Amino acid sequence: MSTHAEPSSTRRLDHARSASIDTSSDSAHSLRTRIRSKSATIGVVGLGYVGLPLIRAIAQQGYTIVGYDVDNSKIAKLKAGQSYLKHLGNDFAQELAHSDQFTPTSDESALTQCDVIILCVPTPLGPHHEPDLSYVIASTKLCARVLRPGQLVVLESTTYPGTTRDVMLPILEQTGLRAADDFFLAYSPEREDPGRVGSTTDRIPKLVGGIDPISTNLCVELYESFINNVHQVSSAEIAESAKLLENIYRAVNIALVNELKVVFDRMGIDIWETIEAAKTKPFGFQAFYPGPGLGGHCIPIDPFYLTWKAKETGYATRFIELAGEINRHMPHYVVSRIADALNEHEHAIKGADILVLGVAYKPDVDDSRESPAAEIIEQLLARGANVSYHDPHVTTFPEMRDHDIDLSSVDLTPERLAQSDCVVIVTDHTNVDYSLIANHAPLVVDTRNAMARVGGEIRADVVKA
Hints:
Blueprint: H1 15-22, H2 26-37, E1 41-45, H3 51-59, E2 64-68, H4 72-79, H5 90-97, E3 102-105, E4 116-119, H6 134-146, E5 152-155, H7 163-173, E6 184-187, E7 206-210, H8 213-224, E8 230-232, H9 236-266, H10 271-278, H11 302-310, H12 318-344, E9 353-357, H13 372-382, E10 386-390, H14 414-419, E11 422-425, H15 434-440, E12 443-446, E13 461-464
Parallel strand pairs: 1-2, 1-4, 2-3, 4-5, 5-6, 7-8, 9-10, 9-11, 11-12, 12-13
Antiparallel strand pairs: 6-7
Helix pairs in contact: 2-8, 6-7, 9-11, 9-12, 12-13
C-alpha cells in the first residue's frame, strides 16, 4: 500500500508530555520509539464500520497491521480483496490484500506480535435498554491473553464513563502486569459517519484520554501519526463522556423536531418549511430534521449508556429518556399516517400493497443497523398489509436481533409503482428517481421531504409524515 505524507498536525511534544514519558518505564520508551519510527505493529480487533476505516488510515502511514475478527467470512473477503462495506469501495480492499503490511485473521495468537491493540467492538443495548458490554469484556479478556510488557491497549467503542478504568483495567491487571509500568491503557472514541463525503477517518478530529498521563501521551503520539487533528483530554472518563454528549445532543435535538413535526402537522404547518425559515438566522440555531425514527449504531443506543450509569448517582436523566421515548415512537406515528392516507383513498391497511423506499438507516449507505424501516415494516405486516421494499444499497433485508423480515429489494419500475396502493419513503437515497415516483405512484407518504426535490408536476398524492 502506498504511503501518504504524514498528517498536518504537529509532531512536537509539549514540555509536559516529554517530561511525563522521560520519567516513565523502559516499556514506555520502547513503545514511543516504535511509534515514532512507525515500526510498531498495530492490531485492530473488530473489522466492521469502525475498525476497517481505521485500518485504512493506519495503513496509509506505513504501519504493519493485524486485523482480527471472529467472523471468518470477513477474513475470507479481506484476503480475497473484497470489501463488505460498500462506502469504502473495493480498491481499498484489493490494495490491502496485495500488501504485505496487513494480515486479516481470526487467530488471536497473531495479536501477540502487536505493540498496540485497538478495540472496535459493538456496544449494543440489552432487552431492557441496559448497556451490553459483553463484546468489550470479551475483547479485553482476549487482550489479557496476549498481553505483554510494552503494549498499548485502546478502546474506541462508545460506552459509559468509567468503562476503561473500572471494567477493562482490572481484567488486564489480572495478568500480573501493571498499567503505566508494564502496559498502557487509553480511550479514544470513534467518530465514524459512513457515507459522509470527505469525512475519512484521518480527517475527523480525534479525542484521546488515558487512565494515566503516560498512557495518554503514548496514545496521543500514536493517533497523531495518522490522524490530522488529535485533541488530548485529561482522562479516559472525559473522552468517554464527550462521546456520549455528542450523540445525546443529536438525539435530543432530533426528538425536538420530531415532536414539533407532529404538533405542526395538526396545526396545518409544514415543519420542513419552518426549519428552512429558522435556518436564516445566522446565530443561535442549528438545523436538525425530523424523520421516521432513529437508526444507526450510535444515536438510538448511546444515550441510554449514560441513562443507565446515571442511576448509580441517584439521578434520573429525564431529558434523555423523554427524547428516547419520542424518537422510539416515530415509526408508530408513520404507520398511523399511512393508515390515515390510505383511508383518504378509501383503502384500509389490511390487504393494501405498500412499497417501502429505503431500509438503510441513512441515505446512500448499505448500513441498516437499528433502521426504523424494520419497525415500520413489521407493524405494517402485523396489520395485514402486503409489504415490499426497494433499496439500491440493500438487496436483501439483513438479519437483526429484534426483527425477522424475509424480504429482498424489488425493482423500481413504473408498473411496480402503479400497482402499489401506497409508497412510503423511509430513507431518501439520492440515486432514486423521485420523478418516476411522482408520475406513477398513486399515493406517497414521505417521511423525509424527498418529493420536494421533484421539479414540475407531481401526479401522486403526497402526504408528509
